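User: structure tokens for this one?
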Amino acid sequence: MLARLRVWAKRLRREALMLWLAARDPRTPTLAKAIAAAAAAYAFSPIDLIPDFLPVIGLQDELVILPLAIALALKRLPRALAAELRERASTMAERPVSRTTANAVVTVWIALFAIAWIRFSG
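Assistant:
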């Protein structure tokens, strides 16, 4: 079962990467681009809607919300384009992880949280 979960997680990561590529591709229709960008941002964000440390419901967003967002984006994306981008995503997924990008994402989230805190706290 653990092996199947790893395969599923790897496929989910590849699909999220494919959506990130779709959001940046000029051939992607506008609605598909918006959905793809939101799904990819959520997938790669280090901050979850529901924190993972909460028992039972902590992983629900990854198990429910993310696959639904990916499916919705894929319905709006032309099949040929999705296949092309999926192939690129598979190639990119084999590369090492960029720590610089991860740090940039965390910095943006912290800045947004700080702005919201200042704006709404007083």
